[in-house]
Design brief:
Domain Leprecan-like alpha-helical: 40-156
Strand content: under 5%
Pfam families: TPR_leprecan
Shape: elongated
Number of strands: 0
Largest sheet: none
Structural class: mainly alpha
Helix content: 55-70%
Order of helices and strands: HHHHHHHH
Keywords: Glycoprotein, Signal
Mean pLDDT: 79
GO molecular function: collagen binding
Number of domains: 1
GO cellular component, one term: endoplasmic reticulum
Distance between the termini: 63 Å
Length: 164
């Protein structure tokens, strides 16, 4: 009984996120490669904050905008890979009896392998480059980069904002 509960919890963790507002992506869009390797957003964010405090507001704007774009692209890649692998590697419901869970766990491992492969291919490198600290994750959830960006926009000279 307890094994089934753990299997169901594991299954819930691996299901793709629910679709919100709109039709699912077409299969052709699912397989499109991303443009170039994705830069880790935490490094871009740190660079933007450092530039802001050094008074280099143009550089702060560029880095903070790049960090926000990179963060959005990372979330999109993860969502697309989860959907793609859920379709390509469906999970087999566990059966009854001893050893009946083996097909389920085999399918689970295949889905995880598919997800890691998809993520590595679309990110242009290992996914471990995009692991961030809890502080950075919290800043992005609280939308702190937008605060820095708004302040940097105010301090950027007028000519730069409209003629670039």
């Amino acid at each position: 009984m307890q094994e089934r509960i753990w299997a169901l919890l594991l299954l819930l963790l691996l299901l793709p996120p629910p679709l919100c507002g709109g039709p699912p992506d077409s299969p052709r869009q699912e397989l499109e490669p991303e443009r170039g390797p994705l830069q880790p957003f935490d490094l871009l964010y740190a660079s933007g904050v450092a530039a802001y405090y050094n008074g280099e507001y143009e550089q702060a704007v560029r880095d903070l905008e790049s960090a926000l774009l990179s963060h959005r692209r990372l979330r999109e890649v993860r969502t697309r890979c989860a959907r793609h692998c859920a379709v390509r590697r469906p999970l087999v419901p566990p059966g009854a009896g001893p050893g009946a869970e083996l097909p389920f766990f085999r399918a689970l491992l295949e889905r995880a392998r598919c997800y890691r492969s998809c993520e590595t291919q679309r990110l242009g490198g290992p996914a471990s480059r995009h692991r961030v600290s809890e502080d950075v994750r919290s800043d992005f959830q609280r939308r702190v980069p937008y605060n820095y960006l708004q302040r940097a926009y105010i301090k950027v000279p007028w000519r730069w904002r409209f003629h670039t």
